[in-house]
Prior knowledge:
Layout: E1 5-9, H1 16-30, E2 37-41, H2 47-54, E3 59-63, H3 80-86, E4 90-93, H4 96-102, H5 106-118, E5 122-127, H6 131-135, H7 139-150, E6 163-166, H8 180-193, H9 196-199, E7 203-206, H10 215-219, E8 226-229, H11 236-243
Parallel strand pairs: 1-2, 1-8, 2-3, 3-4, 4-5, 5-6, 6-7
Amino acid sequence: MRKPIIAGNWKMFKTEAEAVDFVKKVKPLVKDVKDKTMIICPTFPALSKTADELQGSNVALGAQNIFWEDEGAFTGEISGPMLKAVGCTYVIIGHSERRQYFGETDETVNKRIRAALKHKLSPIVCVGERLEERESGSTFKVVETQIRGAFKDIDEAHWDNIIIAYEPVWAIGTGKTATPDQAQEVHKFIRGLLPKSVAEKTRILYGGSVKPNNVKDLMAQPDIDGGLVGGASLKPDSFSQLAMF
């Protein structure tokens, strides 16, 4: 049985103080949740204080990106050792916004995954098609290319720590959501691309305007194992409702 995940991607929201305030408010709301893995992924400046506030709770800490080198002249980047030192156990890799605005490719996603695994960080690897790709019937081709590129030459021994997030780009922050059937169709396809020895235990999340009012229908699908949530993860009451679907 795959344990569901609710992961909040805070993107470029919340100062350090706002992040700490969120954690203080959300901890009592979700303290009895034992059947889900709960993760929040704040901005880099907020990681340290957020980690301190999460101590002893049932909510884990993730980051929104990782560089593939451990140190060096890479202005503006952050490394695996830095994320581990601050208390992260998860890291989002290859989000469509990173691909769109910052030149992420399947090749660099692969390098970032390797860096995460090297430092025992669980990567949450994002894939998904743009609206024009869906409308042209290219969804499966795009997703397969991203999956095969991201996990090229990744040893099967590492798959216990790998999480995939299917995020149709046309549904991110737009208020549009893939129907449960649409999402399930792609999740099932993704699972079929994975090595047979790990396919049934790998958790595949859905992301794209997940909200408390649609989370149950999405998570009822057999191949959807949780959500990578944007806007609805920014408020304690909304996050807690998602965690208790």
